[in-house]
Amino acid sequence: MDLFVSFTVLALQGFGGVLAVVQRELVEKKRWMTQSQFVEDWAVAQIMPGPNVVNFCLIIGGRHFGLGGALASMAGLLIAPLVVVLVLASVFGGVSDAAWAQGALRGMGAVAAGLIAATGIKLIGALKKNPMGMAVCVLVMVATFVGVSLLRWPLLWVLLGIGSLSCAWAYAQLSRLAVSGTGS
Prior knowledge:
The chain is mostly helical. The protein folds into two domains: 125 residues, no CATH class; 55 residues, no CATH class. Helix 1 packs across helix 4 and helix 6 runs antiparallel to helix 7. The model has no long low-confidence stretch (mean pLDDT 87).
């Protein structure tokens, strides 16, 4: 029941970007995971097909409570927001062309972008423990930003290219740590 309620509360707080809310609730308040675990699980959720926050709730629910936990967390994440979106869609349909409605949507987009950027900055500290090394992690972030934002490469090619190189480097580093006996 706690999973369902927790993810319902998360979903109702996360308009336009739930990353900041999920990180704060699950790492800082509930302490269900560490910053490093959050970064690793969020990375897995990002590369899986489908909405990353749904993938993430399935990972967390499934890890702690099996299939029932995965389904409870997903139901909590989706049911209340679905009702809210349906109500808002019916109300907004009549005023969507109004200047104040357009301005409200632009403002919400800016807030969501700020929340995501703030959470990304907050999570950088977790990369200190990453076996890839901080310098490589920063290089991957910069290369991804440049590829997607400035060069306008399709995300699929960025994932296949930079993602594959990152995975290979991480595998090599983890193998090296396992051989030397310093792995966790």
